[in-house]
Structure formats: structure tokens, C-alpha cells
Amino acid sequence: MLEPENQKNVEQERSRAILWVGGAAAILLTVLIILLARLSPENKPVLENVVRAGNAEFDSYKNKLELEITDKITHPNMVGMFQIEVRAKLYNRGDRAVTGIEMIGRMLDLNDKMIAQSISIPIPRIRPEPLKPGDVMTISVKVDAPSKITEGEVKDVLVEIYGLTFK
Predict the structure, then answer these.
(1) CATH 1.10.260 fits 51-166, yes or no
(2) Which of 62, 83, 122, 147 has its CA 20 to 30 A from that of 159?
(3) Pairwise CA distance, residues 150 & 110, whole Å
(4) How far apart are CA 111 and CA 115, in angstroms?
(5) What are the domain boundaries of the chain?
């Protein structure tokens, strides 16, 4: 009679140990995910010596770069939601070679409130050589919609030049 009781105690202790190990593993995994999320790079630009709005060099040259929107396409993304891709042509009508460019795409809801944004760096990521005076290049900016937003709730995606670097 003592054997079945002893066997039950051993099984209960084994079950508790498994439960404790599983709980500790879940806590460890949660802490690891939180640490990785904090350490992961945000959607920040990576251009060095970039000039932006408010800088005299940026403000004087931005008007010499012409952006012509050619297409806006909605795609499903990898997590079952959607993204809107804006394709455009970028013309350098100025007299300087642009060695880096940051484009920003902003997704607006029906009340013109920004609901998402994304920064794209076509030079040097897509095109490693500078955009020389008189040159044109095709660019693409993709903006992922937030999880609870439907296509019908998106009014538009606006794209503009966000930062520049020069030779």
C-alpha cells in the first residue's frame, strides 16, 4: 500500500518540477523578447551628415529635386495585413550631386491624421552612385498599415524628401 502512495508523491513532485521549469522558461523567454525589442533598431535613418528641413542647405536644394508620383499599389504584407507602396521618379534639377537621400512616406486616415510612417533610403541603398545633376531615378517607398486599419480607412500615402547628403 505504501508503494502506490509513494509513486503518487514522486509523480506529483515530477509534475511540479516540470511546471516550475516550464514557468521559468516562459519568464526567461519573455525577458529575452523584451530585451531584443529594446535593442532592435527602430525605423531610423542611417545616413551620416544628413541635412533636413530647417537647414539652409536642405531648404535651398529640396526645391531642385522634383518628385513625380507614378503609382500607388496596395500589397498584402508578411503578417496578414497590408502595405501601400508609392512609386515615383526623382529628378535632380539642381547643380549638385546628391550622395544620399531619405524619403518619408506618411499614411493618412480619412481625417488627415497620420497613422503610420516609414523612411526609405534609395541612395545609397538602391542606387550606390550619386544622383548627378540632370539624372533621374525610380524610387519606391512602402508604408505598412497598423494592425486594426483597413484599406477603406486610408485616405492617402504622401511621400516627400526627408533628408539629403551631398558630395
Answers:
(1) no
(2) 147
(3) 11
(4) 10
(5) 1-40, 51-166
Q: What is the pLDDT of residue 8?
A: 78
Q: Which residue in 144, 135, 137 sits closest to 123, CA to CA?
A: 137
Q: For the chain, give percent helix, strand, coil, nearest 5.
A: 30, 40, 30
pLDDT tens digits, 113-136: 999 999 999 989 889 999 999 999
Q: C-alpha grid cell for residue 135?
A: 539624372
Closest CA to 131 of 72, 84, 86, 66: 66
Q: What pLDDT score was predicted for residue 129?
A: 94
Q: What is the pLDDT of residues 35-78, one digit of tens each?
A: 777 765 555 556 888 999 999 999 999 999 999 999 999 998 77
Total residues found in the chain within this entry: 167
Give, for 36, the enclosing helix (H) or strand (E): helix 2-39
* pTM for this predicted structure: 0.69
For residues 24-62, b (16+ Cβ closer than 10 Å) or e, as one string?
A: eeeeeeeeeeeeeeeeeeeeeeebeebbbeeeeebeebb
End-to-end CA distance of the chain: 89
Q: Cell 525577458 maps to which residue?
A: 31
DSSP helix/strand/coil, 117: strand
Contact at 8 Å (CB) between 149 and 108?
Answer: no
Residue 98 near residue 135, CB atoms below 8 Å: no
